[in-house]
């Protein structure tokens, strides 16, 4: 279940984009954090969890040359529209390995298995188990994942390279890295974003001190290894394994299911306020406060005694005689794709009817003094 997290810090230190006057920057910030799940072939035939703000689908069935038999069903789950009808696309992850000649295919030239030429920054592949052929192998495997597994809208998704010691790797760590860089290059050439899923210790065992090139530069990191949600959030502060990258989300396992939490704010905002004189016939304007990150969309709901007022869904509202004596407030809801929304309400203001009060006062004077 997604839930807001209160962050007791100045808004100016948290938000990357804001609306509303700077005077509200001293307000404490309320924020949400995106959470969800990743699923793959082990979940075939099992009920899938409710789709959260994060959904990641495994493309393969344990090795890089296979296809998850439930891929279509799981992609349909992950691509389900949001509650407001907004379209969503799940991320996907693919297995990686460097099997050399023990695999079911190994390149003998700078050609993918399909025959497509591969521009090879690692050298010239001549069939050896070296970095040059490993790069071609990775590039070719990624082409298969992009085009042959049945992933629709492949270029619009984030593709995570699953780097774990359980797969086949060489003692040649530079060649292992070349596989990953070849896969990353193919995915980026297709116009998609690529990231790395790993445990830092396993990454070091597989890649060692080899320095990633531009193919993985700036790639986001999805860390595994946490055992609790709190532990996952703490791991957001870990060093990324990619140069110039950052830890985007962290996985933890609970009751046999993979859970994921995003690193960073989903939606943040400060408490709105009602501005203007709270009188019948006088226009009131909602000061929404400050919201972020960029891309947050705001919705307004005016309430009377805590109940929504029909049709009052804009940033301004003019009280009517029906509002006289009642407490009015405005609720601002911030939302953006891929994050849980946040709703914050203003302090209430009590509406007065100045004209009616004046008429009553005049009548009382007339009754008392005869004029």
Structure summarized in a few sentences:
The protein is α/β, with parallel strands linked by helices and 371 residues long. Helices cover 20% and strands 26% of the residues.
- Annotated CATH architecture of the largest domain: Alpha-Beta Barrel
The CATH class designation of the largest domain is: Alpha Beta
Give the C-alpha Rg: 28 Å
How many distinct domains?
2
Structural class: alpha/beta
Query: Tell me, what's the shape?
Result: elongated
User: Remind me, CATH topology of the largest domain?
Assistant: TIM Barrel
* Termini Cα gap: 67 Å
**Fourth CATH level, the homologous superfamily of the largest domain:** Glycosidases
Note the beta-strand portion: 25-35%
Uncertain segments are 1-26
Strand line-up in the sheet with most strands: 3-4-5-6-7-8-9-10
**Total count of helical runs of at least 4 residues:** 6
Please characterize this protein's 3D structure.
By secondary structure, the chain is an alpha/beta fold. It has 2 domains: 34-262, TIM Barrel (Alpha-Beta Barrel); 267-356, Immunoglobulin-like (Sandwich), CATH 2.60.40. It is 20% helix and 26% strand. It contains 6 helices and 20 strands. It has helices at 71-78, 131-148, 173-189, 200-207, 229-235, 354-369; strands at 5-10, 28-32, 35-39, 54-58, 91-95, 158-163, 193-198, 221-226, 247-254, 257-262, 267-269, 273-275, 284-287, 291-292, 297-304, 307-308, 316-317, 327-335, 342-345, 349-350. The strands form 4 sheets. Strands 3-4-5-6-7-8-9-10 form an 8-stranded mixed β-barrel, surrounded by 4 helices. Helix 2 (131-148) runs parallel beside helix 3. The chain is elongated, with a radius of gyration of 28 Å.
